[in-house]
Structure formats: structure tokens, C-alpha cells
Amino acid sequence: xxxxxxxxxxxxxxxxxxxxxxxxxxxxxxxxxxxxxxxxxxxxxxxxxxxxxxxxxxxxxxxxxxxxxxxxxxxxxxxxxxxxxxxxxxxxxxxxxxxxxxxxxxxxxxxxxxxxxxxxxxxxxxxxxxxxxxxxxxxxxxxxxxxxxxxxxxxxxxxxxxxxxxxxxxxxxxxxxxxxxxxxxxxxxxxxxxxxxxxxxxxxxxxxxxxxxxxxxxxxxxxxxxxxxxxxxxxxxxxxxxxxxxxxxxxxxxxxxxxxxxxxxxxxxxxxxxxxxxxxxxxxxxxxxxxxxxxxxxxxxxxxxxxxxxxxxxxxxxxxxxxxxxxxxxxxxxxxxxxxxxxxxxxxxxxxxxxxxxxxxxxxxxxxxxxxxxxxxxxxxxxxxxxxxxxxxxxxxxxxxxxxxxxxxxxxxxxxxxxxxxxxxxxxxxxxxxxxxxxxxxxxxxxxxxxx
Length: 452
Fold this sequence. Notes:
Layout (H helix, E strand, L loop, with lengths): L1 H15 L5 H12 L3 H10 L2 H10 L2 H10 L2 H10 L2 H10 L2 H10 L2 H9 L3 H11 L23 H10 L9 E5 L5 E6 H6 L16 E2 L4 H10 L4 E5 L5 E6 H19 L14 H28 L1 H6 L7 H24 L8 H31 L1 H31 L9 H24 L2
Parallel strand pairs: 3-4
Antiparallel strand pairs: 1-2, 4-5
Helix pairs in contact: 1-2, 3-4, 3-5, 4-6, 6-8, 8-10, 13-14, 15-20, 17-19, 17-20, 18-19, 19-20
């Protein structure tokens, strides 16, 4: 481990020194060859485009291809722009059609077209098929290279067919069974084929397939894929004909990308297109500044509420002491509800039509949470500041928890209904909304109870 870290540090130092001499390049190649693929991927992701291209050029063919396949499409595109044409052609040729399509999405149209025309006819046809689907459709992420079996085949014939085409598809562990028009009749696992007698017919072994249409939204399909605990999923066209297969690595990559995007937006920022250490400072600032400006402007509402109730604060100064507690409670309650409902939407546990049920459920959850917190507020504030103030605190905590839970559960559903990303209604937005509304509730209750 110590040796690996020392080698990694040495390669980093060489890259930052921008080696140009033959001796330096030989040393860089020697030390890079000793690093595992994971470390090489880390170096490419966290270095600028020129350094990444320099490192890539000294790798042997096998290392270079493995590293390239581990990169995200936008990182691949940056690297392609900095590499020489012969090496680019070699890389493009070895990519799977779905990975190639994702890369072409990130490249300038002229470059993508030139690389596409450089492929042989079969590879070009498969890549064009994948590129024909919308960017958010699962058809864009399927592999069109798939081995299909026919129901009348025997196990022996099926295995011979698999062996004859074993180098073509991305996976062979789940094999679709199709009829003469390529409509999917079922699927059979390779393990099942290997365990059966050679004379058994394929249709006697096939079971119902979990399918997806190529036009379906990618996140929904990927989450269904993982929920079903599949290794692969046949992808069909609108008439049920087999057009490709989705593998577990592609499904997981989709979910990782979606979760990273949701996580960033929940925190009030846009996701970064490059690794954090390789992203320019100004690009990080741009990813954060928009939400900060929006939230700063919306926070003026809170100031306006405080100004409106300034006379009440002057009359009972102790009310100001509880403002941070109440705004924090409202924001946290709303964020909890929003996070839970957003997750339920993502995995298909909740749909937009369930809005009334979600509101009623969150109202009861908020009432229960508010009863517990309100009782604590009543007792503690009552002991130190008198019973009237305790009553104000108890009732306010109850009302704020109910309001925040309903708002937090409602916003992701509204976003989904209007076609927006539920994560856009991020935690900072909900916190700001609940702050202003919570203060209105607080001072309204205080005015009524304390006769202000």
C-alpha cells in the first residue's frame, strides 16, 4: 500500500512538472504502468485535460481502454479532444454502442459525425440505433448487441449458438427468447441452460420476462431494474420486439448519476460536470450562486414578517428568543418530509395521483411530531417564562410541524405534476418558505394568547 501511494505521488509530481523530455516520459510510463486502474482513473479525473491526455498517451493499450471505460461521458469527451486521431479511433472502436452514444452526446457534432463515419458498417448501424432515442429514454443506454434464442431450440443448440457469438454481446447471463418477428416470449438464464439436459427445449425453460420499452424514462426503468434484482433486462420497441438489453452496470450508473444530481440540488447547488478537484473555481461558484441569490431574495420575506410584528416583539421581548428554534424546527420538518416523498417518487412507491393520501398522511405525521415537541415546549417555556409563553410555544410548535410536513410532502408531487425535477424544490427553498410562514403562525398565536 505504501509503495502504491508513493508511486501515485511520483506520477502526480511528474504530471504537474509537465514532462517533455524522453527520459521523463519513459519514467512516467514506467511508474504509471505499475499503478492499478483505480488510481489511474483518479489521476485522469482530477487532472486538467492536458495532463490527462499526457498520462493517457503513455499507457499501454489495455490500460488505456480500461481507464477510458471507467470515465463519465463528459470526461471521455474532454480526453478525446486532447488526444491524437489514431488513439481516438482505437478507443472508439472498442467501446460498446451505448457507451459510444453517450460519448458522442458530449462531443461537438462535427467531431461525433467524423468518428461515427470512421466505424465499420455494423458498429455504425448499432450506434445510430441507440442515438435515435431521446437522451432521457432507456433506449439510449441499452446495448443493441444481444444474443436471442428461439423457443424450438434445444439446450444443446442454444449453448452452441451462445458459444458461436460469445464475443459480441455485453452480457450472456440472461438470454431473451424470441419468436420469428423478434417479439419477446420470455427469458432464460445461462445457468439454467447449463444445468439442463441437452435435448430439453428452450421454451420449456423460459420464464416471464421483466421488460421495458425503449422509449421509457431512464430513471424509472433503472429503479425498477434494481428493485427486481435483475442482472439484465430486455428492451423492446412499441410492438414488443427485442431491440436491446440493459445490463446492471448501466442501470447502476444511471441511478448514481440521478442520485448525485438530486443530492446536489437538495443542497441548493447544481451538480458538477467534472471531478471536484478538476473543476475550475468559477464553475463551482456558478453551480452554487444561483440558488444562493434566490434564497437570499426569498429570505427578505422573513425580514418583512419580523418588521410587521415589530410592535409585538417590543412588547414581549422574550418572543425573539424562540425564533431560531421555531424556524429551525419548521425547516427540518419540511426537509424530512420532502426527502422521504422525493425518494418514494423515485422508486415508484408514490405517484402524483396519491397527492391527497400523501397530504393526509403528512398532516397526521406533523400533528404527532408537533404534539411531542409542543408538549416539551409548553413545559420548558412555561417553567422559565410563565404559562402564557409556554402555551404560545406549545401551540406554535404543533402548528408549524403540521404546516411544514404538509408543505414538504406536497412540493415534490407538485414538481412532478408540472414536469419539473422534484429535487429542484430543494431543502433550502423549503426551509425559507417554512421560516416565513412559521413566523406568521408564531406571532399570530402570540397575539391571540398574550393579547398583544
